[in-house]
Write the structure tokens for this entry.
Amino acid sequence: MRYVTSIERLAKEEGIVENARESIITVLQTRFGEVPSPIVEVINKIEEPSVLKMLHKSAIAIPSTTEFQQVLDSLNSGK
């Protein structure tokens, strides 16, 4: 098995995070059209894969971008 350096591991994790962000935004665009820039900005700042996974599921099921924004707001208030 090949040794994976910490830099390679970080690059892989960053790729996973970036793909997750893009997936969330794509789902929101597909469902609602243009995604408000404040939502995109918040999504692009999130680094935790588990949070992004939860947001992806929410983006699929949530009825509006307004309610998605409320989910994002609740994440920020929980910090």
User: Anything to note?
Assistant: The chain has four helices and no strands. The mean pLDDT is 89. The CA atoms of residues 19 and 68 lie 19 Å apart.
